[in-house]
Amino acid sequence: SMKAMLFFSRDPMRRVVEYSHNNVPASYGEGFTFAESGDARQEYTMTVTRCFYHHYFTAHSAAELTELFCAWDRNWVDAISPDRHGVEFIRSTTIAQGGDSCPFTFRRRTLEKQR
Q1: DSSP assignment, residue 84?
Q2: CA 84/CA 48 separation, integer angstroms
Q3: CA 51 to CA 48: how far, in whole Å?
Q4: Where are the beta strands (DSSP E) in the chain?
Q5: Is 103 in contact with 95 (CB distance < 8 Å)?
Q6: Which of 57, 75, 76, 59 is nearest to 67 (CA)?
Q7: Residues β-bridged to residue 90
Q8: Neighbours of 66 (CB within 10 A)
Q9: Are 51 and 99 in contact (CB under 8 A)?
């Protein structure tokens, strides 16, 4: 669905931000806590500060399984083509990797980077 959403969008960066803001928190429910920063113009970050998966697996002595859920994100992340859509995705760490949070950052590519 990410691929189709970006294909039909006049401004893929703005569309990703709108989708994230309007749909993601409700889709994941109360087991997750999200914080947002930035905007649709240049850079936007949705940060997961509480992860139900990590909480659940840690409580059941299997925290390493959380990384399987993190890897699942590749299914939609790989649909974002920086060259085609002008949007870069950056996730520098995850809670499963020992980070305090999972920042999902979307950055609009500058014209210079697109060349």
Answers
A1: H
A2: 27
A3: 7
A4: 33-38, 43-50, 87-90, 102-108
A5: no
A6: 57
A7: 105
A8: 22
A9: no
Tokens, residue 70: 């993190």
Q: Which of 4, 19, 9, 1 is nearest to 106 (CA)?
A: 19
Answer yes or no: are the C-beta atoms of 66 and 51 closer than 8 Å: yes
The amino acid present at 18, given as its one-letter code, is E
Is residue 45 within 8 A of residue 104, CB to CB? The reply is: yes
21-56 pLDDT, tens digit per residue, is 999 999 999 999 999 999 889 999 999 999 999 999
Angle CA 4–107–38, to nearest 5: 110
Query: 65 — phi, psi (to 5°)?
Result: -70, -20
What is the C-alpha separation between 43 and 56, in angstroms, rounded?
Answer: 31
Q: Which residues contact 72 (CB under 8 A, 6 or more apart)?
A: none
pLDDT in tens, 64-106: 999 999 999 999 999 999 999 999 999 999 999 999 999 999 9
